[in-house]
C-alpha cells in the first residue's frame, strides 16, 4: 500500500469544554474515495474542517502526503504551530467544496472560478479565465460562465463550487454533504461530476447522507458517532451483517425511508 | 468647577431626558403609521408619507423648531415651548424611525405572513400580531441608535426657550467665562445618558420574546 | 410678518460661498470618515481584544457626546494642551473623526453580514487576509452598508452647521450672519431650510440610485 | 390684531419680555437664576405699568422671530441702536452707552486702542461692533487682523486659548468680563469709535405704539429720578449719560 | 365514491407571461392521502399554494367540499371574485404546513398554536391554551410548550407547525415538502406524525420528495412535469411498468440514489 494521502493520528477537537472529536485515527488512501457517515452532530463536518485546517485540532497530528498540516512535533515532543506560509503551502494541495456552496455572490461563475488564479497565483487575466473555462466545461457549465450565482440553480451552483476548487489543481478534494442542499434531480448532476472525478483517480473525502453514493462510489466508509470513529472499512463490510448496534440503528432510519420497496 | 454649577447641569438634563423620552415614544407611534403608509400599495397614502420623511429628514431640526414655534401662531396656534419642542422632535425622529421600520417590515419573511393568512388573521391582526413584533426585533439596534441621535439633537430645543444641558452649559459658560470646564462636564453627562440608553437597548434586545439566547 | 426676498438676492455671493464651504467640508469629512471608519472596523475585527476594547471605548465616547461640545473642546481647549488648529482643519478633523466613529459601526455590521463561509472559501483557495477583505468582504457588504451610510451622511450634513462656533464660514454661519446683520431672521430660516433640504434630497436620491444599481448588477433575477 | 397691545397687556396684567441669557451683565444666569440689568430695569417698568413681567428666554437666533410671532411683546436684547435696524424695528429710549472698547489678554502689549494695529482681534459676526472695528482699523497705520465669531463668548474663549490678543465689544459688556476674570482679561481705555447706545427692541406696528410709548415714558422717568443711574452703577460699576431718544444714530 | 374534498378544474396559473400550471384537473378524495411528485420547478408548490389560495389561479375553478374557493362562475359564465369574508370561511377548512415551518419567532410553541384560537376565534385564553396543549401532546411536544422556536430542533419546529394547523380543526391539511428542510434523523419524527394523521382519516395533500412515504402512505399519487399533470393514480399503478417515459426517467434518479442495494 502506498503512503496515505492524509493521515490523522490521535486527533481531538474541543469547543470550549465540549469535546466534539475524540481520539480520531484515520488514513485516507490516495486516489480513492473515502466517505464519512454518521448521525447529525456526530462531528463529520468538524473532522472535515480540521482536514482543511479551517478548524485547528486541539490535540493530535494531521499529515498531508507526508507533510505536517498546521502543527508539528518539535524535538521535545511538543506540538508547535507551523509558520503561516508553510500552512498555506500544504493547504494548497487541498480543495474544499462546502455544503452551502459559498459562492461569492458578486462575481459571475467565471469570476468565482478564476479569482484565486488571478489574485493568489498571479496568472494573467486572459489565461486565468481560459483555465477557468476548462474547469467550467468539465462540470458542464461552459454556457453559464457569465451568470451570477443568484441566476444559477442549486445544482449548477454546486458544480461551479467544484470547478472553483478544481481550478487550483488540488491533489485532494474534500466535500461536505455536497448534495444535501439540493433537490433530487439537481443532486444527480453533482453526483455525476463527483463520479467522474473518482474515476479519474482524484483523492476524495466525502461527508454524505447519500448512502447510495457512498455504497457505489466509496472505496472506504467511516462511521462517526458522538465524536468517535466507530468503524472504518470497505462498503461491503459496513453493510454486511452483523453490524455494530449503533450503525445498525443508523442505517435502519435510511432503509425505512428508502426506495427499496419501489422496484 | 463648583459642585453648584455641576448640579445645575444635572438639573437641566431632566429636560433633555424628559423631552427626548416623550418624543421618541410619540415619534415611534407616528413612524409605525408612516412606515405602514410607505409600504401601502396606494399612492394616496404613500406619497404624503414620502413627502413627510423627505421634509423632516431634509430640513434641519433647528429650523423645524423655529417654524413650529413661530409660524404656528400665525394660524392661531400659540403652542407653549414644551409642546413645540415635543412636536418638533417627535416629527423629526418619526421620519428617521419610519425609514428604519420600513426596512424592518420589508424583511419580515413572507412565509410568516402567509402562515398567519392560513390561520385566518385579518390584515390588521397580521400587522399587530406578526409584522410589528418581528420588524421591531429586526430594527431594534437601529432604533436604539436613532434614540441616541435624537437625544443629542435635543440640544436644539433651546431655540424655543427650553434650558436643557447644552443651553445651560452655554449660559453658565457666558456668566463664569469658564467654558472648557463647563462643556467638559456637559459632555460627561451626555455620555452617561447615552451609555445608559445603549445598555438599556442591549438589555431590551436580549429580552425581546424569542430572541436567540 | 415681514418677509423681504431682496435680502437674499443682495447677499447671493456670500450665500453661494457658504454653501460651497459646507459642501466641501461635508464631502471631505465624509470621505475621510468612511476611510478611517473602515480602518477602525477592520482593526477591531482582526486586532484581537487589545485593539478592540480601547477602540470600542473611543467610538462610544465619540458617539455618546454631542458634536457641538466635541468641536468646542478641541478648538478652544486644544491650545491649552498644545493643539492649536485653524478653524477649517479643525472642523475637517472633527467632522471626519465624528463620522468615523459612526461609520466604523456601520462597517462592523457590514463585516458581520457576510456569511463566514464566503471567507472560508477564500481561505481554502489561499487568498490572503487583505485579498479577502478587498475582493470578497468589501464588495459583498456594499449593499448592506449603503442605506445606513446615506442616513449618516444626512446627519453629518446637518451636524456640519455646528462648525459655525469655531468660525468656519459655512452655510449656517453665513446665512444667520446675514440674518442678524439685516435683522432678517425669517428670511434666513427659510433660506437655510430650502438649501439643506435640496442637498439632502440630492444625497438621498443618489443613494437610492446607487442602491438600485448595485442590486440589479449583483442580484439579477434568475 | 388691530387690538391695542398696551390695553391687552394691562388687561392680562402680564408683560412678556423675550431675551437671551448669555449676555452678561444685561441678562445672565447666576447660580441658576436669571439676573442682570435688564431684569432689574423691567421690574421697575412693570411697576410703572402696573403689570407683572414674564420672561421668555431663548438663544439669540430665536428671539427676533419670537417677537414677530407674538410670543412676547418686547425684546430685552438689548441691541445697539443703528440706522439699518431702525428700519425694521422700533427701539426704546437708550438704557446704556454701547460705544466700543478693547478687552485685552492680561499682559498683552496694548495700552491704548491704537496699539491693536496689526494684531489679531476678535469680534461678534454681523454686529454693530464689527462695523465700528472695521472703520477704526482703516484709520490705523497697519490693518487689524479681524476675526469674526458667532458669539462674543466664543471670542473670549479664543482669547483665553491664545489665538487672538484682544476683543472689541461694547464697554458695559467687557467691563463685566474683566471684573469676572480679573487677572486674565483687562479693559483698554478709552473707548474708540462713535458714541452709540443700547436700547430694547420692539415692533413698529401701529397696535404696538402705545405699549412702546409707555415703556419709553417709564424709562425716561427712571432716568429722571435716578433709579436708572443706580442700576447702571450696580451692574457696570459706572453711570452713563444717555439721551431720551436716538433719532439719528451715528452708525 | 363520495364528493371529493377538493376538486380542481381547468386550472391555469401564470406569473407574468410564464405559464407555470396548465390545465390542471385534480380530485382530492376525502379522508385519503394524495401526494404530488415531480421534478424541481414543475409547479408542485404553486399548485399547493393555489389550493390554499395563497396564489390566485389565473383561470379555472377550485371547490372545497363543494364550495367555490376564491372565484365563482356568475350567471353569465364569467369568473368573479368572492367577497373576502367568504374566502376566509372556505379557507378555514384548510390547514397548511410549510417547508420552512414559518413559526412566529416571538411566540412560544404554545403561543404559536393557541394564537389563532385566541385572536381569530375569540376562544378565551385558558381554553385556547388547553386546546393547544392537546395538539402539542398529539405531536409529542407537550413538554416543549414554553420553548421559543429558536430553542427547538427542526423536527420539533415542524411538529409545532403541524399542531398549529391542527388546532383550528381543519378538514384538509396541505403539506409542502414538510421534511426537506430537515436532516434525515429529524425527518422520521415528522413523518410519523403524518402517518398517524393519515391513519385517523385526515384528508391530506402532500408535496413530497419522500418517495418511500408516498409509496407506503399515499392513496393517490400525481406526477407533475413542466406545469402539466401527467399522471394520477394509485401507488401500485404509478410504480408499475410500463410507465410514462418522463416518469420513468424521474423515478430512475431516485432509484439510483436509493438504498435498494443496501439490504
Ligand atoms: N463552533 C462550535 N462551537 C461549539 N460547538 C460546535 C461548534 N461547531 C460544532 N459544534 C458542535 O460539534 C458537534 C459536531 O458538529 P458537526 O457540525 O461536526 O456535526 P456533523 O456530524 O457535521 O452534523 P450534521 O450531519 O448535522 O452536519 C455538534 O454537537 C455541534 O453542536
Ligand atoms: N412568484 C413567482 N414569479 C415568477 N415565477 C415563479 C414564481 N413562483 C414560482 N415561479 C416559477 O414557477 C415554476 C414552478 O415553481 P414551483 O415552486 O411551483 O416548483 P416546484 O415544483 O415546487 O419545485 P421544487 O421541487 O423545486 O420546490 C418555476 O419555474 C418557478 O421559477
Ligand atoms: Mg455537518
Ligand atoms: Mg416547491
Automatic annotation (TrEMBL), chains A, E:
The lineage of its organism: Bacteria, Pseudomonadati, Pseudomonadota, Alphaproteobacteria, Hyphomicrobiales. The keyword Flavoprotein does not apply. Gene3D superfamilies: P-loop containing nucleotide triphosphate hydrolases. Residues 6-251 form the ABC transporter domain. The keyword Zinc does not apply. CDD domains: ABC_HisP_GlnQ (cd03262). PANTHER family: AMINO ACID IMPORT ATP-BINDING PROTEIN, L-CYSTINE TRANSPORT SYSTEM ATP-BINDING PROTEIN TCYN. Keywords: ATP-binding, Nucleotide-binding, Transport. One of its GO terms (molecular function) is ATP binding. Pfam families: ABC_tran. It comes from the Bacteria. Belongs to the ABC transporter superfamily. This is Amino acid ABC transporter ATP-binding protein.
TrEMBL record, chain B:
The chain crosses the membrane at residues 12-39, 75-96, 182-203. Residues 13-201 form the ABC transmembrane type-1 domain. PROSITE patterns: ABC_TM1. It is a multi-pass membrane protein. It is found in: Cell inner membrane; Cell membrane. One of its GO terms (cellular component) is ATP-binding cassette (ABC) transporter complex. Gene3D superfamilies: MetI-like. One of its GO terms (molecular function) is transmembrane transporter activity. The keyword Cytoplasm does not apply. GO terms for biological process: amino acid transport. It comes from the Bacteria. Pfam families: BPD_transp_1. Its main location: membrane. InterPro entries: AA_ABC_transptr_permease_3TM, ArtM/GltK/GlnP/TcyL/YhdX-like, MetI-like, MetI-like_sf. Coiled coil: none annotated. Keywords: Amino-acid transport, Cell membrane, Membrane, Transmembrane, Transmembrane helix, Transport. Belongs to the binding-protein-dependent transport system permease family. HisMQ subfamily. This is Amino acid ABC transporter permease.
UniProtKB/TrEMBL annotation, chain C:
It holds the Pfam family BPD_transp_1. The keyword Membrane applies. The chain crosses the membrane at residues 20-43, 55-77, 183-204. Its main location: membrane. It comes from the Bacteria. GO terms for biological process: amino acid transport. Keywords: Amino-acid transport, Cell membrane, Membrane, Transmembrane, Transmembrane helix, Transport. It is a multi-pass membrane protein. GO terms for molecular function: transmembrane transporter activity. It is found in: Cell inner membrane; Cell membrane. InterPro entries: AA_ABC_transptr_permease_3TM, ArtM/GltK/GlnP/TcyL/YhdX-like, MetI-like, MetI-like_sf. One of its GO terms (cellular component) is ATP-binding cassette (ABC) transporter complex. Residues 19-204 form the ABC transmembrane type-1 domain. PANTHER family: L-CYSTINE TRANSPORT SYSTEM PERMEASE PROTEIN TCYL (PTHR30614:SF0), MEMBRANE COMPONENT OF AMINO ACID ABC TRANSPORTER (PTHR30614). NCBIfam families: HEQRo_perm_3TM (TIGR01726). Belongs to the binding-protein-dependent transport system permease family. HisMQ subfamily. This is Amino acid ABC transporter permease. It comes from Rhizobium straminoryzae.
Amino acid at each position: 500500500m502506498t503512503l496515505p494521502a492524509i493521515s490523522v493520528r490521535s486527533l481531538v477537537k474541543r469547543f470550549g469544554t465540549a469535546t466534539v472529536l475524540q481520539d480520531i485515527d484515520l488514513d485516507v488512501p490516495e486516489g480513492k474515495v473515502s466517505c464519512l457517515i454518521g448521525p447529525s452532530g456526530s462531528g463529520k463536518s468538524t473532522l472535515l474542517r480540521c482536514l482543511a485546517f479551517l478548524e485547528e485540532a486541539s490535540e493530535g497530528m494531521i499529515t498531508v502526503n507526508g507533510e505536517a498540516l498546521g502543527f508539528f512535533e518539535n524535538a521535545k515532543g511538543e506540538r508547535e504551530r507551523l509558520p503561516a506560509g508553510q500552512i498555506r503551502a500544504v493547504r494548497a494541495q487541498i480543495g474544499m467544496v462546502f455544503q452551502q456552496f459559498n459562492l461569492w455572490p458578486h462575481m459571475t461563475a467565471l469570476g468565482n472560478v478564476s479569482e484565486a488564479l488571478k489574485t493568489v497565483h498571479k496568472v494573467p487575466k486572459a489565461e486565468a479565465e481560459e483555465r477557468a473555462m476548462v474547469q467550467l466545461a468539465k462540470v458542464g457549465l461552459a454556457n453559464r460562465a457569465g451568470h451570477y450565482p443568484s441566476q444559477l440553480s442549486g445544482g449548477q451552483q454546486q458544480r461551479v463550487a467544484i470547478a472553483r476548487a478544481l481550478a487550483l489543481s488540488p491533489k485532494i478534494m474534500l466535500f461536505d454533504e455536497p448534495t444535501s442542499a439540493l433537490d433530487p434531480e439537481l443532486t444527480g448532476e453533482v453526483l455525476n461530476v463527483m463520479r467522474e472525478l473518482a474515476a479519474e483517480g482524484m483523492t476524495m473525502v466525502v461527508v454524505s447522507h447519500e448512502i447510495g453514493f457512498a455504497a457505489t462510489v466509496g472505496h472506504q466508509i467511516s462511521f462517526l458517532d458522538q465524536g468517535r470513529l466507530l468503524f472504518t472499512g470497505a462498503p461491503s463490510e459496513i453493510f454486511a451483517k452483523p453490524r455494530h448496534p449503533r450503525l445498525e440503528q443508523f442505517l435502519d432510519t435510511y432503509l425505512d425511508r428508502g426506495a427499496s420497496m419501489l422496484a | 468647577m463648583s459642585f453648584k454649577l455641576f448640579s445645575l447641569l444635572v438639573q437641566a438634563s431632566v429636560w433633555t431626558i424628559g423631552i427626548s423620552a416623550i418624543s421618541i415614544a410619540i415619534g415611534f407611534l407616528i413612524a409605525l403609521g408612516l412606515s405602514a403608509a410607505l409600504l401601502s400599495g396606494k399612492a394616496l397614502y404613500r406619497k404624503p408619507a414620502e413627502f413627510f420623511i423627505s421634509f423632516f429628514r431634509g430640513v434641519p431640526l433647528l429650523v423645524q423648531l423655529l417654524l413650529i414655534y413661530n409660524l404656528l401662531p400665525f394660524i392661531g396656534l400659540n403652542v407653549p415651548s414644551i409642546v413645540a419642542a415635543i412636536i418638533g422632535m417627535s416629527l423629526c425622529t418619526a421620519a428617521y424611525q419610519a425609514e428604519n421600520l420600513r426596512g424592518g417590515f420589508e424583511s419580515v419573511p413572507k412565509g410568516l405572513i402567509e402562515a398567519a393568512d392560513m390561520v385566518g388573521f385579518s390584515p390588521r391582526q397580521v400587522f399587530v400580531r406578526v409584522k410589528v413584533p418581528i420588524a421591531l426585533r429586526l430594527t431594534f439596534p437601529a432604533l436604539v441608535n436613532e434614540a441616541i441621535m435624537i437625544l443629542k439633537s435635543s440640544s436644539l430645543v433651546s431655540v424655543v426657550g427650553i434650558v436643557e444641558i447644552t443651553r445651560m452649559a452655554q449660559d453658565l459658560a457666558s456668566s463664569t467665562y469658564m467654558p472648557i470646564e463647563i462643556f467638559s462636564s456637559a459632555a460627561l453627562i451626555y455620555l452617561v445618558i447615552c451609555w445608559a440608553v445603549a445598555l438599556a437597548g442591549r438589555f431590551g434586545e436580549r429580552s425581546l420574546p424569542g430572541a436567540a439566547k | 410678518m415681514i418677509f423681504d426676498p431682496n435680502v437674499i438676492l443682495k447677499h447671493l455671493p456670500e450665500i453661494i460661498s457658504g454653501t460651497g464651504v459646507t459642501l466641501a467640508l461635508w464631502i471631505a469629512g465624509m470621505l475621510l470618515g468612511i476611510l478611517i471608519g473602515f480602518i477602525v472596523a477592520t482593526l477591531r475585527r482582526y486586532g484581537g481584544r487589545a485593539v478592540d476594547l480601547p477602540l470600542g471605548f473611543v467610538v462610544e465616547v465619540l458617539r455618546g457626546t454631542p458634536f457641538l461640545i466635541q468641536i468646542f473642546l478641541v478648538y478652544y481647549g486644544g491650545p491649552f494642551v498644545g493643539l492649536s488648529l485653524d478653524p477649517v482643519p479643525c472642523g475637517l478633523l472633527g467632522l471626519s473623526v465624528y463620522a468615523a466613529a459612526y461609520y466604523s459601526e456601520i462597517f462592523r455590521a457590514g463585516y458581520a453580514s457576510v456569511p463566514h463561509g464566503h471567507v472560508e472559501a477564500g481561505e481554502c483557495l489561499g487568498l490572503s487576509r487583505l485579498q479577502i477583505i478587498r475582493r470578497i468582504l468589501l464588495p459583498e457588504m456594499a449593499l448592506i452598508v449603503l442605506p445606513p451610510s446615506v442616513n449618516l451622511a444626512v446627519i453629518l450634513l446637518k451636524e456640519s452647521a455646528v462648525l459655525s462656533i469655531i468660525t468656519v464660514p459655512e452655510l449656517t454661519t453665513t446665512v444667520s450672519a446675514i440674518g442678524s446683520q439685516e435683522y432678517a431672521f425669517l428670511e434666513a430660516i427659510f433660506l437655510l431650510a430650502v438649501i439643506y433640504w435640496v442637498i439632502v434630497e440630492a444625497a438621498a436620491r443618489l443613494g437610492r440610485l446607487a442602491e438600485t444599481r448595485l442590486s440589479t448588477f449583483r442580484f439579477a433575477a434568475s | 390684531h388691530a387690538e391695542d397691545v398696551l390695553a391687552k397687556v394691562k388687561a392680562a396684567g402680564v408683560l412678556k419680555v423675550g431675551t437671551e441669557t448669555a449676555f452678561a451683565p444685561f441678562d445672565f444666569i447666576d447660580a441658576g437664576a436669571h439676573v442682570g440689568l435688564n431684569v432689574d430695569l423691567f421690574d421697575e417698568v412693570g411697576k410703572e405699568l402696573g403689570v407683572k413681567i414674564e420672561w421668555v428666554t431663548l438663544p439669540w437666533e430665536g428671539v427676533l422671530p419670537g417677537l414677530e410671532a407674538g410670543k412676547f411683546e418686547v425684546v430685552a436684547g438689548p441691541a445697539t441702536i443703528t440706522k439699518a435696524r431702525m428700519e425694521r424695528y422700533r427701539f426704546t429710549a437708550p438704557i446704556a452707552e454701547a460705544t466700543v472698547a478693547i478687552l485685552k489678554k492680561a499682559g498683552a502689549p496694548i495700552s491704548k486702542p491704537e496699539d491693536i494695529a496689526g494684531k489679531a482681534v476678535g469680534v461678534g459676526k454681523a454686529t454693530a461692533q464689527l462695523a465700528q472695528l472695521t472703520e477704526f482699523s482703516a484709520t490705523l497705520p497697519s490693518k487689524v487682523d479681524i476675526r469674526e465669531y458667532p458669539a462674543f463668548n466664543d471670542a473670549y474663549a479664543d482669547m483665553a486659548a491664545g489665538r487672538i490678543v484682544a476683543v472689541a465689544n461694547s464697554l458695559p459688556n467687557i467691563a463685566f468680563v474683566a471684573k469676572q476674570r480679573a487677572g486674565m482679561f483687562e479693559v483698554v481705555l478709552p473707548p474708540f469709535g462713535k458714541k452709540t447706545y443700547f436700547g430694547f427692541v420692539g415692533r413698529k406696528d401701529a397696535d404696538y405704539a402705545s405699549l412702546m410709548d409707555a415703556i419709553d415714558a417709564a424709562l425716561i422717568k427712571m432716568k429722571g429720578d435716578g433709579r436708572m443711574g443706580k442700576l447702571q452703577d450696580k451692574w457696570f460699576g459706572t453711570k452713563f449719560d444717555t439721551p431720551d431718544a436716538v433719532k439719528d444714530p451715528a452708525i
